[in-house]
Amino acid sequence: MRDVVVDLETTVSRAVAALAALGDERSRRHPAPGKWSPREVIGHLIDSASNNHQRFVRAQLQDDLIFPGYDQEAWVRIQRYADAGWDDLVALWAALNGHIARVMAAASEEAIARPRPFHNLHELAWAPIPAGEPATLEYFMRDYVGHLRHHLRQVLDVREHPWLAEAGASVAAPAR
Q1: CATH fourth-level superfamily of 2-171
Q2: What confidence tens digit (pLDDT) does each residue in 36-64 have?
Q3: How is the chain split among helix, strand and coil, in percent rounded to 5?
Q4: Contact 11, 165 (CB under 8 A)
Q5: In terms of Cα–Cα distance, which of 159, 117, 167, 155 is closest to 35?
Q6: Among 81, 145, 147, 153, which residue is least crowded by beta carbons within 10 Å?
Q7: Which long-range contacts (CB under 8 A, 24 or more apart) does 118-121 make?
Q8: 141 closest CA partner among 174, 106, 104
Q9: pTM of the predicted model, to two decimals?
Q10: For residue 117, is it left (φ>0), alpha (ψ between -120 and 50) or beta?
Q11: Which residues of 17-44 are buried (b: 16+ CB within 10 A; e: fewer)?
């Protein structure tokens, strides 16, 4: 599990500088009609961090991996991330993920590795697990980091930031 924590910490550290370099003007641009701007993508990642932080804590206190979902488009719209300060968004995103890395690192091996027959990761996970297959908290944590890296690749140019093209520990999720 340490590899996932390091992957998250390293990804966030590298991304903060790259995101700051985008600047105010570029962070407002939509790559295509109907697509989120970098501000909205980072806002979505803030919402993802907020929701998954709670899920990762709750998962250590319950026998299943069943959690409420949320309407991602509505959350981005209602919170008006497109109008928020770019530096503030990046700082909040980085701080939330620093805390998530601490939660991941502090989780017990038993809580991380225990197969959970009841879950809704077929609905919540970026790389879903079929409803009938058991899932682990480790898988869900790895999936979170994979999701985060996916969205960073939408915002940052991989040619300028080749570390984004690396698979990272999160992508090669362990057996479910």
Answers
A1: dinb family like domain (1.20.120.450)
A2: 999 999 999 999 999 999 999 999 999 99
A3: 65, 0, 30
A4: no
A5: 155
A6: 153
A7: 118/63, 118/64, 118/65, 118/66, 119/64, 119/65, 119/66, 120/65, 120/66, 120/67, 120/69, 121/65
A8: 104
A9: 0.94
A10: alpha
A11: ebbeebeeeebeeeeeeeebbbbbbbbb
Amino acid (one-letter) located at 164: L
Cβ–Cβ < 8 Å for 89, 3? no
Length, in residues, of the chain:
176
Give me the amino acid identity at 149: R
Residue whose pair of structure tokens reads 């909040």 in the numeric block: 92
Number of H helices, E strands in the chain: 8, 0
Q: Please list, in sequence order, all residues whose beta carbon lies within 8 angstroms of the beta carbon of residue 77, skipping any fewer than 6 positions away.
A: none
